[in-house]
């Protein structure tokens, strides 16, 4: 368990997920066009980053299972 907490890919995954939630909240609550457009753009790029981070995390997990 402690080893999982120290894994940088896990920390990166949860950080990006938190940033996406914050960005979506800003998009929904903001009444400023500039803030909305920047927040939506950030959400899209963070979504791509989240996908690739999750893919790398899955690859590491599969390597740990197959090569003990």
What would you say this structure looks like, in words?
- The structure is a single chain.
- The protein has 68 residues and is mostly helical.
- Helix content is 90%, strand content 0%.
- It contains 3 helices and no strands.
- The protein has helices spanning 2-6, 8-29, 33-66.
- Helix 2 packs antiparallel against helix 3.
- The longest helix is centred in the C-terminal third of the chain and has 34 residues, at 33-66.
- The protein is elongated, with a radius of gyration of 15 Å.
- The protein starts with a helix and ends with a helix.
Keywords:
single chain, 68 residues, mainly alpha, 3 helices, 90% helix, 0% strand
SS element count, helices: 3
Largest sheet: none
Report the helical percentage: over 70%
- Radius of gyration over C-alpha positions, nearest whole angstrom: 15 Å
Indicate the mean pLDDT.
84
The tally of strands reads: 0
Q: Termini, distance in Å?
A: 16 Å
Helix/strand/pairing category: mainly alpha
| Strand percentage | under 5%
Order of helices and strands: HHH
Contiguous uncertain segments of 5+ residues: none
Global morphology? elongated
């Amino acid at each position: 368990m402690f080893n999982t907490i120290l894994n940088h890919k896990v920390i990166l995954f949860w950080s990006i997920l938190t940033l996406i939630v914050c960005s979506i909240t800003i998009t929904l609550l903001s009444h400023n066009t500039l803030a909305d457009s920047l927040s939506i753009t950030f959400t899209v790029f963070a979504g791509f980053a989240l996908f690739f981070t999750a893919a790398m995390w899955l690859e590491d997990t599969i390597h740990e299972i197959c090569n003990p």
